[in-house]
């Protein structure tokens, strides 16, 4: 079990490093608070990116409630939202 956990950590770090080297950053859901804009401010504070040319992939977007917040802070960003769970719309 320990070998499996180490392999998982290695793969995660390798992918993160590869994406970072290409100019991408990944922020996981634990940064996100549905009740306030604090999470958006926290992500922007921790991100080392040019906010004027930002592309956001909102994966697991639910019904798209985050788009309004992203637009408020990043009016020029390209935003792509996905909700892979069809039960969200039933």
Describe this structure in words.
It is a single chain. This protein has a two-stranded parallel ribbon with strand order 1-2. The chain has one domain. With 90 residues, it is α+β, with helices and mostly antiparallel strands. The chain has helices at 2-21, 38-46, 66-73; strands spanning 55-59, 78-82. Helix 3 (66-73) links the parallel strand 1 and strand 2. The longest helix has 20 residues, at 2-21.
State the share of residues found in helices, binned by percent. 40-55%
What is the overall number of helices? 3
- Please mark out the parts with pLDDT under 50 across 5 or more consecutive residues, or reply none: none
Task: Determine the N-to-C terminus distance.
Answer: 39 Å
Along the chain, the helix and strand elements come as HHEHE
Structural class: alpha+beta
- Number of individual domains: 1
Shape: globular
E-strand count = 2
What radius of gyration results from the CA coordinates?
Answer: 15 Å
Major sheet size, sense and barrel closure: 2 strands, parallel
**If strands are numbered along the chain, what order do they take across the biggest sheet?**
1-2
């Amino acid at each position: 079990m320990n070998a499996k956990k180490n392999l998982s950590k290695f793969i995660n770090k390798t992918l993160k490093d590869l994406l970072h080297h290409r100019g991408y950053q990944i922020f996981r859901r634990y940064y996100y608070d549905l009740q306030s804009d604090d999470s958006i401010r926290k992500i922007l504070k921790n991100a080392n990116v040019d906010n004027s040319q930002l592309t956001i992939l909102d994966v697991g977007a639910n019904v798209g409630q985050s788009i309004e917040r992203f637009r408020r802070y990043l009016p020029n960003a390209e935003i792509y939202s996905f909700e892979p769970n069809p039960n969200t719309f039933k």
